[in-house]
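User: Frizzled-1, Mesorhabditis spiculigera:
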Amino acid sequence: MMAWTQLIILAFLAHASFQDSAVYSPPLHKSPAQKCVPITMHSCQDLEYNLTVYPNLLNHQNEKDAEEAIRQFQPLMKVKCSEDIKLFLCTIYAPVCTVLEQPIQPCRHLCQSARDGCETLMNKFGFHWPEQLECNLFPVDGICVGENKSSTSAPPARSHNHPAELECPSLMKTPFHLNGAFLQLNAGKIAECSLPCSADAHVPTFFDARTRRWLRLWTGLCAVACFFGSLFTICTFLIDLNTRFKYPVRPILYMALCYFGLSVIYMIGVFGDDRFACGEHASGQSQLVNQGVDKFPCSALAVAHYFFTLASCVWWVVLCLAWFLTATRHWGFEFIESMWLHFHALAWGLPGILSIVVLITNSFDGDVFTGICSVGNLRGDALFWYLVVPIGSALTVGLVLLMMGIFSMVRIRKYIKLQQVDVEKLINKIEKLMITGFSAIYVLATAAFAGILFYQSRQTPFWIETWYGQRCASAQRADFGFHRAAKECAPLNTDSAPPEILLFVMKYLLHLVVGVTCAIWVMSVKTMGSYKRCWNRVVRGRTIVATADDELMPMGGGPVRPGHHQQIRGIHAQR
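Assistant: Predicted structure for Frizzled-1:
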């Protein structure tokens, strides 16, 4: 794509001079001899109108002269440096013909949108915006062409009551426009624009500097707790992997690995300040929130954060699937363990594929509250489709499998009580294995986390629009980089309140609390015995033979004999 763009630009440099001899003049009244003619020039096909009139706004007398003049702008239209460049140029060289006595001019905001998108690219190759197309030559209000929407009718005339197109302040313009950086407001997108990282005293970005420091400290504390909790879980599994922690509980080990990775990512963001989430402004005057793959450290953190978040969810599904196969289908632990390759392919492969999709679509950006980069901080649609939907789907599937297993165990318990079989103790162990605080905390925490993400995905455009409107209407608007008149600002969205600090406090807590829950789940007398044997084996060089009680699965409560699984299968065969 970059090579093709460069070829177009080279052609642009070779043939375009932007020195049109024609000079813009106010539209003349049509004489009775002037008639509307169809637009046949190649550059202005597929517009919202198909009739024009000559002479045009640059005083070209016929379409042949106009087509020759507009041809120099074809490279800009091909690279689509602005979504409005084609409509703007065509309303100059082939103005819309209506029943009015004079051609309709483009609105000033349409010119400004085209200029904002293309002037940076032109300047890189030593060219300037043509004088005959200066935006101050066109009307701010009144009847003018001002929108670029697909329609079979003539382009709408913009009156003075219609809000002007959104302007990206000069201090918020991004240098990484080729990666599709933009701000998503409820009223629309602002291309090549991003949020400032600093929290100024006038109109801070959502929270003031003190609140943001407190929020980052809170995230760091949660990350440290998750780090040690997940590390304790991993160590506990590794020192007793072949005796206590077999399937169906083995996936908890890999969930702990995922949360260990997440805690490291958050700690990197906290201690790295804003060097990952933010990048320099094109002029070097301020820092803006990074968007897309422009910065490698930001991209690496975003992909790792997204991968471990989804991988933990998929391992939860694997955990519930293994529980379902044990409790409902009565599969032996050894047979379930033989499917480990399929489990790993699913749990690591699916998040890997989605991470590549996120990388290709540039759907991540900086999080100024934690210092990392992740998916959908500024783009609500990306947050919904790439996080809310996968997390909600995994939680639902796992919960269904878990409930089916519980229902099956309840039926077995009733039958055992009637038969007076001595394997009821085994049923209690298996129930305690999964119906514990771990499952409850995971479901509640993940459901609440997904709910917060869903709310954030719906409200982010409103939050940004409210913040943008306040800065645009502020008395310090010139200091913020706004150049247009205050009356052209987008109207404030008074129905949208700024985000609450508690929302983000709970968001980061719920994202990391499962790592601590894993540590609580493995804590037991058997765990202490495992560490005691490891200590004697490694430090003292002695080996202590484990007792039958030490070979139990966590939360079991009594020895598990191999024949119990055959007894359960025999009971179901009798039924």
